[in-house]
Description:
Layout: E1 4-7, E2 10-13, E3 18-24, E4 33-39, E5 46-51, E6 57-59, E7 67-72, E8 77-82, E9 91-98, E10 113-114, E11 118-123
Parallel strand pairs: 2-11
Antiparallel strand pairs: 1-3, 3-8, 4-5, 4-9, 5-6, 7-8, 9-10, 9-11
Amino acid sequence: QVQLAESGxxxxxxxxxxxLSCAASESTYSSxxxxxxxxxxxxxxxxxxxxxxxxxxxxxxxxxxxxxxxxDDANHTFFLQMNNLEPEDTGIYYCAARPTRxxxxxxxxxxxxxxxxxxxxxSS
Length: 124
């Protein structure tokens, strides 16, 4: 079973940047779909970005051009670079993984393994 741990959240002003990291517990995750999700208070968890084992990425429309997902399989870590942050980006950010090589989707129900979440707060 893969264990995931996020880091890098925080409180910043609108327009700033943050990078989230997710460390995985085992090397087999290199064949997995990896994703970042977020949940704002009173709202459902939504997909932000995914990356498959070949590096193909998929983004929610609300973050395209501002967020970048990447993976470092040698170090069992993947990242979410977030630029030009907006107050609407506020929420708890979760990293997730599913044991499939491709066809990664933004639907949270598809993912089997989850981190504990890290808070991101953007002030205007």
